[in-house]
Request: fold
Amino acid sequence: MNLGIFKTYNDLAINTYHVDPKIFVALVLISVPFYWYGWLMIVRSIFKSKSKEGNNGRIIIERFFNNREFKIGLIINRLAWFLPYVYIIFWGQNLPMWFWLMLSIWIIFFICLFTLKIRRIIITPDGGRKQYRYLWKIYAYFYDGLLIFKPYQSLIELILEKADLKKGESVVDLGCGTGNIEKMTQVGGVDFYGLDFSDEMLKRAERKCPDYKFINYNLTDYNIPLESNFADKVISNNVIYNIKDIEKFCKDVNRIMKPGGILILSTSIKSGLKPIAIEHFKLSKPIDLLKSVIFLPKFLIILILNIFIDRSGDFYFYSEERLQKVLRESGFNIREKIYCYGDVNLLITAEAL
Ligand SMILES: C[S@@+](CC[C@H](N)C(=O)[O-])C[C@H]1O[C@@H](n2cnc3c(N)ncnc32)[C@H](O)[C@@H]1O
Reply:
């Protein structure tokens, strides 16, 4: 049997990586079958991509990269390739520059693949619209971490103060999330209707507030499933940056409101998380800061999701002027404007005419 290839590995171990050649060669031997099995899966996925209908070049390439077998094959192949190098990274000495370079390139390649995959999971196309159901689905698991976050608490309190809810009123919360506005309402006997398109958010809202009605509805359908002249008050906090056609949205909101009804609309008008973080430190008592440290992992995930919302360029941070104009044209009389939430949010109180 020609062991030439193993002689090469043997020499590499001794002369280049300065590790025990027996361990290195043994690891190579273990990894070889997986390495070739990975390649086999990749090659098979090329043929599978070709054999389906619609064989133009772009479709074949897209199908190939989205092929499950290709992805699993690539992961098996690269992990097998990587196995002996784990040993070298930790035990090798005087490793050459090209080794670190090669390793960095592979790590960057995998980070890019992973990021693209995450982006594809988060953005779910739905009839030509970009939808972020998965973003909100993931957010739902962590969302209530915001409740120990002082600026968020103060924002909800401010919204409720401005809404001035009364017993017997019909109140619609558009994009109700996990129902924190409903939960923090002190007044009893309010008829709350929470609308949101995320089942995970709604599940939590129903659990917290079993007496209120929660409806799964996509606000970008622009046809709220409630009668005209239905609501005394409409609240929407940090939702409209998801709405592309703000004109249609405001007109539809006006339709469901009784004349003289009050709309409380709060939304981010500029991006940036720093002012909110500063406000958190300003408003928090030591016990709140301690809680933030305990719940740090939750905060970090919330932070990552917010950075995505902030930076992706796929959300609509409407300007104050645009919002005022649209509200007026949709039949509202603006009563009050307040900057809040570290001055990142604008809270508008408007009366439906
Ligand atoms: C930042 S959260 C705000 C939740 C709640 N208003 C609060 O203040 O706690 C945004 C909410 O809007 C919902 N949402 C986003 N796009 C939506 C759409 N197109 N239709 C319905 N709900 C949507 C999300 O599921 C999420 O619950």
Notes: The radius of gyration is 28 Å. Residues 21-51 form the longest helix (31 residues).
